[in-house]
Design brief:
Blueprint: H1 2-55, E1 57-58, E2 64-65, H2 73-76, E3 79-85, E4 92-98
Antiparallel strand pairs: 1-2, 3-4
C-alpha cells in the first residue's frame, strides 16, 4: 500500500511539473503577445496622429483636428489596403481598393 502511494505521489509530482512547464510557456507567449499589442497600438496611434496633422484643420496650439466618419468594421472588409513607400523613402502611399469577388 505504501509503495502504491509513493508511485501515485511521484506521478502527481510529474504531472504537476508538466503543468508548471506549460504555464511558464503560456506566460512567455502572453508576454510576447502583450508586447506585440503595445507595438500595434503605438503604430495605430502614430498613423492617426500623422493623418490628423497632414489632413486636419490646424488649431491655435499647433495641433490639428480631423473628423472621420464612424467606422463600421464589417462594411470596410470589402476593401483592401495596399501600402508602399514613396519614391525616395520619405513617406508612405496608402491605396484602398474594393476587393475583387
Amino acid at each position: 500500500m505504501k509503495r502504491k502511494a509513493q508511485e501515485e505521489l511521484e506521478q502527481a509530482r510529474h504531472e504537476l511539473g508538466r503543468w508548471q512547464k506549460k504555464a511558464a510557456e503560456q506566460q512567455r507567449e502572453l508576454k510576447e503577445l502583450r508586447a506585440g499589442f503595445r507595438e500595434l497600438e503605438e503604430l495605430t496611434r502614430a498613423v492617426l496622429v500623422q493623418a490628423a496633422l497632414s489632413c486636419g484643420e490646424r488649431t491655435e496650439n499647433g495641433g490639428a483636428v480631423l473628423t472621420l466618419p464612424r467606422v463600421a468594421v464589417g462594411s470596410l472588409r470589402r476593401y483592401e489596403l495596399r501600402t508602399r513607400r514613396e519614391q525616395g523613402g520619405y513617406g508612405y502611399v496608402l491605396e484602398v481598393r474594393k476587393r475583387e469577388k
